[in-house]
Amino acid sequence: MRHGVLPTIEVRNLQRTVRVSTPRLQRFANIACALVWEHKLSGAEIASVDAISVLIASDRRMAALHKKFCGLAAPTDVLTFQHGEIVISAETAARQARIFHSNVTAEIQLYLLHGLLHLAGFDDVTTLDRRRMHRLQKKLFATALRIYR
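Request: output the structure for the sequence above.
Response:
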């Protein structure tokens, strides 16, 4: 393990329903990971992993994971696991993009950043924590997009 060293991050697309540009998402992931690293909390999981895996999955796979690990029998947008795994549902991202008049890429990027923040020690269980995390997420997302472009 490379404690205290920025982990590598790898994006893999495991689904075929929603078109996703893996190279573009990989580039965003590299930027977002470096930004989140600068804001990590003491004892955060991100500081103790060598690599982060970001998996773009189907709703079906996401629902199975959501049921297995959270007891909820429905897909969700993003799940973050210890040891550096982030799973994102492309189909949920597509639905949310339509609802929020966004695009699929932006939704997936937002979920990726959200997952990284969880690995960096942030949580969104309480209202106060949720506000704190959302504020930082909004700031880092804007910064990441500026660098990305």
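Helices lie at 22-37, 59-70, 90-99, 104-119, 127-148.
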